[in-house]
Amino acid sequence: MKILKFQLANRGAKGFFVILCLVLLGAFGQAVNAQDMDPDELLRRVDDNLWSQTKIIEGRLIVDNGRRERVLQMQTWMEGVERSYSVYLNPPRERGVKMLKARSKLWMYTPRTDRKILIAGHMLRQSMMGSDLSYEDMMEDKMLSRNYKSAIEKFEDFEGTPCVVLLLIANDKTTTYQTRKLWIDPEKKIVLMEEMYAKSGKLLKNVRFKGYRQTGDRLFPKKMIFRDLLKSNTKTTYEYDSIKFDAEIPAKYFSQSILKR
């Protein structure tokens, strides 16, 4: 009987030792991965999945203010990160609204007033079409690998996927979000969640990236869910119906003359 108890105790000790070794090996492997992984290269690979020289997008902006939903159907033409043109197709109240981004300027045209206005200064911080995005967010739509320095903060499981959490610090002190955090699947080189912080360190917004699918030689999300954390019980979903990468776009799409056509 004593021998049996000793054997069981011995097996238990061995089992504990094996588990301890596995935990230590996992931690060691994670540390090795952290040393081997280049955060800047990982961020570049993420950008490669999301960005191209040009894009033509058809999609819907689903604005949920906690009481009701509005669905804005729109089409967008983009060249790089500095020029884009969007036109709203539905609902009828917003049909014909146009927005043009050209480098550091943003114009908006509304058919009801038949006027185009330059959105600047404090207006940039206002909600875009009642959504969780501001006009400033549209102006800050840049390639992260070119505008932030990155470092690995930690490894973390996110909704069942092992992720690397990258901490990003802006290169330019005028950048709206001085700090960002990205939860990245290091195997697929895709971002699953992003957090954006104010200069004070306060968490302002987060974005979930959902439904990645193969689009040519890249993985691109089916939808992005934005939440302005200064609001309560709101969210805005940008759902992509179709997207064309590296499509030819005539120069007229990025001229102010297109706003009143």
Describe the structure.
This protein is an alpha+beta fold and 261 residues long. The chain has one domain: outer membrane lipoprotein receptor (LolB), chain A (Clam), CATH 2.50.20.10. It contains four helices and 15 strands. The protein has helices at residues 2-36, 39-50, 135-139, 144-147; strands spanning 54-64, 69-79, 83-90, 98-102, 105-110, 115-118, 148-158, 161-170, 179-185, 190-197, 203-210, 213-215, 218-220, 223-228, 235-245. The strands form two sheets. The chain has a 13-stranded antiparallel beta sheet. Strand 12 and strand 13 form a beta hairpin. It is globular, with a radius of gyration of 23 Å.
Write the layout of secondary structure elements.
Elements: H1 2-36, H2 39-50, E1 54-64, E2 69-79, E3 83-90, E4 98-102, E5 105-110, E6 115-118, H3 135-139, H4 144-147, E7 148-158, E8 161-170, E9 179-185, E10 190-197, E11 203-210, E12 213-215, E13 218-220, E14 223-228, E15 235-245
Antiparallel strand pairs: 1-2, 1-15, 2-3, 3-4, 4-5, 5-6, 7-8, 8-9, 9-10, 10-11, 11-14, 12-13, 14-15
- Extract low-pLDDT stretches: 1-9, 13-32
What oligomeric arrangement do these chains adopt? single chain
Provide the CATH top-level class: Mainly Beta
What general form does the structure show?
globular
Average pLDDT number? 86
Short recap of the structure:
The protein is an alpha+beta fold.
Output the keywords.
single chain; 261 residues; alpha+beta; outer membrane lipoprotein receptor (LolB), chain A; 13-stranded antiparallel β-sheet; two-stranded antiparallel sheet; 15 strands; disordered N terminus
